[in-house]
Amino acid sequence: MDEELQRSLGEVARAARERLGLTQAQVAQKVGLVPGVYGRIERGDMMPSVPSLRRISLALGISSDALMGVSPSQVAATVDEAPPEGNLSPELRRILHQLRTWSPKRLKVLSKVLTVLASSFED
To answer: CB-based contacts of 9: which residues, under 8 Å, 6+ apart?
Structure first.
């Protein structure tokens, strides 16, 4: 398991709990964990299961993304939303923006053209 993620998650959970003025035992009770187990999560000694992570997130009023150190610029907010384009070149972003307006038929033709072009550049 990624120890840095465990440590970071624990630090964020502790900060959120302290901001709410709660004890570890109070959060553990809300989450349905034994206080010692919740304490291990905050110390970065243990990674919670996904269901526990969700309950911790709800109990502390903080997104699971924030608990795991994932920023909104790194991921889409929903399945229906396009992924962020922060790491793409300006040219590629412009192309993607235009392609999102194209019909499936036009995209299929473009895909075939790109396949032919790509094969012509192979050694």
So the answer is: 41, 44, 47, 48, 67, 68, 69
Tens-place pLDDT, residues 44-55: 999 999 999 999
Amino acid at 85: E
Q: Which tens digits make up the pLDDT trace of 15-46?
A: 999 999 999 999 999 999 999 999 999 999 99
Crossing angle of helices 3-20/35-42, nearest 10°?
Answer: 110
* CA distance readout (Å), 43 to 12, 70, 88: 10, 19, 37
Tokens, residue 66: 């924030």
Helix (H, G, I), strand (E, B) or coil at 75: coil
